[in-house]
User: What shape does this take?
Amino acid sequence: MRSIIISILASAIAFPAGLQGQQILPVSATKCVFGQGVFLVVSTHHSDPYCASFATAPGGGCTQWKLFRNGQLVLSKYTVPAGGGTQVPSNPPLDYYNIGRFLLSQPGQYQVKMSYSRRTCSGWWIFKTCKFDVFVNETPVLTVTANDLNLATWNLCPLGSFDGANCFVMAKPPNGFIWGQGFYVPASNSSKCPAGTFDGANCFLMPKPANGFIWNNGFYVPAGPGGTCSVGTFDSANCFIMKAPWGSTAFEYNGNFYVTPLSVCSQGSFDGANCLLATAPAGTTMFEWGGNFYVTSLHPCR
Assistant: This one.
């Protein structure tokens, strides 16, 4: 009787179905710079929530990364993504994982293959049926030349000098500031008049004509009958006298018309309001740190 029971139990057990390869998504690889090194950065995608949180040891995990150079395996490691990954739009939903950087030291043809296994089981106790699926992602083959490995050939800083992370532009001048896409300092007052005569503070133009007024940084008087003007030129509505020159502002004071004197720049170039020191090149972002002006470098490893 005992042998019969053992026979029945053995026949009820379904053994693992084995490894079943399945391509998920193509993934990209890119060359970039971090510190004084050139790296290969790769990302992968998958949807296994168990893999997102599993780690067998510090620095270990359920995803295996294999780096190949000229078809030969040069590095293999297991990782789990920091923070458990970030959801990306897809159907079905997939988690996005960034493995970080592989330091490149030799030219060659590089490729990274990423795989993880998922064990799915059904049933209970000795009647459990388990299956292992292996999911594989791989990058295209990426050519790395000796020129790629030479940092001097990378256009990292179209403005400033590379400090290992960003591009140092200059020490921040007194009252320096960032606005729009530029580094600036305030302009200084001067006695230079673009029009009129300097009176010790501003540029005197003329006594204000009867009913004269300022509009849109220009000086005007109302027109007479039939569009006649005793001063200025008829502009189809009023008599236009003049515009305040570029870099100056029209104003009225004590019954007279004035413009402000031009501002001057001890450094940079006057833009009509302040002194522009430098403009951030396309693809970079300006910031201030440690009392210095910087822009982000091009081709950084993110």
